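Protocol step 4 of 6.
Sequence for Acyl-CoA thioester hydrolase (Spongiibacter nanhainus) entered exactly as in the expression construct, tag removed. Do not edit the line below.
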Amino acid sequence: MARDISSQRLELDNYPLQKLMETRYSDMDSYAHLNNGSIGRLYENCRALMHIEIYQKTDLFVPNATERTLLVECRLRYLHEGHFPGAVTVGTGIGGIGRSSYRVHQALFQDGRCIGLCDAVMVRVLGDTPSAIEGELRDRFSALLVKAPE
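Step 5 output, structure tokens:
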């Protein structure tokens, strides 16, 4: 499994958005590891913050919003155990941009080590219809591309 992970995904500096977050006691499972549900919420929160930055508004998240982003696929990979207490940093960026869909690449770091990855596919929707990512909006997405290997 680890062979299909590009080394650039394991480096925090390659992610344009980075959010330091404290773990909570309730984030632990019965083995004193960060549990998968808590890890998923950390990624989800940082995707939401990324969307606020891209769209420059928060009403994407209200019922009946005209413009929305929909999560259509999400893959989490657990590379190492995470622990409480301790801070984690979530790196977030755009992995690729299609016509109306885009990939979000995220990584979770604790004590300088990448402990997990998240790959999400999302779709921009106006009303109930996928809508093209164009113009200034595409530029804002492009500004958050994860750094590629040199």
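Step 6, annotate. Residues 2-142 form a domain with the Thiol Ester Dehydrase; Chain A fold (CATH 3.10.129.10).
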